Amino acid sequence: MMQKRKLRDLEVSAIGVGCMGFSHGYGKVPETEYSINAMRKAFEVGCNFFDTAEVYGDVVFYPGHNEELVGKALSSVRKDVVLATKLHLRPDEVAARSSVYDAVKSHLVASMKRLGTDYVDLYYLHRINEEVSFEEVAAAMGRLIDKGLIRGWGLSQVDVETLAKAHAITPVSAVQNIYSMLERGCEAEVIPYCVEHNIGFVPFSPIASGFLSGKVTVDTKFEEVDDVRKFVPQLKKENITANQPILDVLADFSKLKNATNAQISLAWMLHKYPNVVPIPGSKNLERILENLGAADVTLTDNEFAQLEAALNACTVHGHRGFVETEQHTFGNNWKKKE
Ligand SMILES: NC(=O)c1ccc[n+]([C@@H]2O[C@H](COP(=O)([O-])OP(=O)(O)OC[C@H]3O[C@@H](n4cnc5c(N)ncnc54)[C@H](OP(=O)(O)O)[C@@H]3O)[C@@H](O)[C@H]2O)c1
Known about the structure:
The chain has a single domain, classed as Alpha-Beta Barrel (TIM Barrel).
């Protein structure tokens, strides 16, 4: 069984599965049965942490498509898994309801129905919309926790000031921000804040949208429909070429540890922080199992220090973050790096 970690009160496997790609974001999706089987196999090898969102599926299918798949795959083992999902809140729908709480609850009820459950373990605000008070969302999440409808809540793509204010209203279980060897911005403030305040940190795109696996090359053709990689600046040909030194570092350590590049990139962040639980995404069962296997790749302190020093000596070219951000102020933090 895989080692466990804590996201505040939630006990999860050290690595989770990002389920988005089964419905959204990385081009053509597998057959439904394949996706369901892949999630069940991940559970069988010890993964209990599955990440989805109400919006996944909206481009090719419909919002909720991914939650339905996760529900079909895992409702038979519901009590043994930790399900994380996310909501977006628009100002007009908040205005149409009597309160932020009512608006949040109506999203939650719809997600629970699709997931085939009567509670969600970890409910994230997917993006902060500056026209909707996040303080009121935080208070609403507290009420939902009190009612037993969610076990914990979180924020995604959040900066440290917003996080601290939200945490003061209702303690946050986990932050889900972009974090990988190519996107280390959260090391400055957000992750240290989370470590200090017993908040879990769940990196999304931990393999840098596949780049760190070494399998994406300048010849890789991204798909026409619903493939986020077409818009990820780090995956422009010039950046793929310029970031090769990072792949060389990974390749050295992969050889040393008899592991894959993707596994080393995950083992690195697990070693670095005790509260980090990455959710790599893949629509391919073998790769899902490979990524979960990174929990067994243990770096010694010395190996980690060498890896860290080698990474710090590399310049990262291009970034990904801003394409993931809708709110103005936090979005500008990423844009400055262009
Ligand atoms: N909170 C947010 O705003 C947010 C944003 C984005 C994502 N997420 C969540 O985070 C999860 C992970 O993020 P992500 O999918 O964007 O990025 P990721 O995990 O860094 O990368 C996914 C890409 O890498 C490839 N890949 C994965 N493992 C591989 C391996 N071992 N070898 C070779 N290629 C591999 C996948 O291809 P194949 O599918 O072909 O294997 C896919 O193209 C998502 O599933 C989603 O749940 C959250």
